[in-house]
Write a structure and sequence with these properties.
Order of helices and strands: EHEHHEEEEE
Strand order of the largest sheet: 1-6-3-2
Number of domains: 1
Shape: flat
Length: 126
């Protein structure tokens, strides 16, 4: 069974947040709005982002990723069941057929709502 993964709208997130939190190649998970605010701060855009999260059944993950380009890769996810546990792997899918890349870097810091009982991981671009 495929896990339900929803990208959350970051609204008016400022660029400084993406520069500070993007590109680290990791996933950070929280099971409550209070825990997120304690770690990240109480930004107006964060309240908007969290309003549609049901923390009884979901958790929020911040996926920090990076790709190079042009052309750039895209963040994707796949879910699997490992020993009865839901695992969601976020990864960067590199562009098909690109021979030369690396003139610029693109940082990403995306929020997702995933099932509360799932484990999220990040696999860097090959």
């Amino acid at each position: 069974m495929r896990a339900r993964i929803r990208r959350l709208d970051k609204g008016e997130m400022h660029t400084g947040f993406i520069i500070e939190h993007g590109g680290t190649g990791k996933v950070t998970a929280w099971t409550s709005a209070a825990a997120i605010r304690k770690e990240l701060g109480d930004f107006p855009w964060l309240a908007k982002l969290l309003k549609n999260v049901d923390f009884k059944t979901e958790q929020v993950v911040l996926v920090s990723w990076m790709t190079s380009g042009p052309p750039e890769g895209e963040l994707r996810s796949r879910s699997s069941n490992v020993r009865g546990k839901n695992v969601i792997d976020f990864y960067v899918d590199p562009p098909k057929g690109a021979r030369f890349r690396g003139e610029r870097a693109r940082l990403g810091a995306y929020f997702f709502a995933i099932p509360r009982d799932a484990t999220a991981i990040y696999t860097p671009e090959p």
